Amino acid sequence: MPTPPRRRTPFGPRLGAVSVFAACLALLSPAGAEAAARPGPHPYPALQQQLEGLVRAPGGPPGVIAVLRDGRGSRVMRAGVADLETGRRPDPHDHMRIASAAKAFSGAVALSLVDRRYLRLDDTLRERLPRLPRAWGSVTLRQLLNHTSGLPDFAQAPAFVATLGADPRHRFDSRRLLDYVADQPLRFRPGSRYQYSNSDNIAVALMAEAATGVRYERLLEALVYRPLGLRHTSLPQGYRMPRPYLHGYDVSPPSPPEDVSEVLSMSGVWASGGIVSTPVDMTRFVRGYAGGRLYGPDVVREQRRWIPGAASEPAGPGRNDGGLALFRYTTRCGVVLGHTGNTLGYTQLIAATPDGRRSLTFSVTTQINQAMKPDLLQELRAVQENFVCALLR
What we know:
Blueprint: H1 16-24, H2 45-56, E1 63-70, E2 73-80, E3 96-97, H3 102-115, H4 125-128, H5 141-145, H6 158-166, H7 198-212, H8 216-228, E4 249-250, E5 258-259, E6 276-277, H9 279-290, H10 297-303, E7 307-308, E8 319-322, E9 327-331, E10 334-343, E11 346-352, E12 359-364, H11 374-392
């Protein structure tokens, strides 16, 4: 029987996890087609055992759900529970925080606008966002999308961390998040090195708004949700989760798990990590996004100019290389493209083959990254690689 969670209090003593979050925040097909699992006997008993092993591991997630999709249908695999209080099982229609996988959505918006010639990859912050610091002016949209901009990370700014620590549900002005680092120089010459930064995708969303005169949330609806049939995906400003949802937990033994699903306001991450979605919608998204269905071949070619060794946070399975808001995961069984993410209570992987025909959505209900749980991350990546192998075979 799972250990019941301790009642979550927004300002309780364990909210040191919020500061860790702030510091480490780096952190498809017709409707309904992916919703049902393929009937018949379980084809992957070893994979099921590995999911159950993740749930039993010290510091492991109370729940995990994976959706494998190929040309014949979907296979939903899960272990543990969606809610420790009720014991309900994870469901592919449950809402969840997708964390930095939201960066793929801002990439989808920006690249769709490049395809439509509202933006160019060589557009600079000086041209599109002249109110930002002059020292940042030469940074291009391309460099923002592949994390070679050198922008300082607002999520690590002392004033941002202090505000979040004092009130995790603080309502930030999402379009002013870069103000927290506006007094800082670039970390390096733009284009000279890779460094994952949450500031990059805030700037991407602001450039999209500046180019179109349309709010980012509406651009998501028009350019991503509607074309890919995403009916249960949103970018909230507050801390509430749509029902039903996968509860996210802070798992820090020997303390019992603490429900942290609704601790943080998403206004403080916005285009860099604030999207809420479901495994069904994320399956549709990654099949369309990784498969290059949102824009033409010229843009796809630019998106897939890889930076060797560049990894999302946390790293995905196999060897990681970075493109424009997209990562290549080269496993022992082949290549998939996608994105990862982690935030308080959740860790995500979305991946698909380059043609978008096969996909994997892999969601766990606790935060796992190199800084906080390196051993568990190593185990998670190994399990994810085994799922990719099952997908490709």
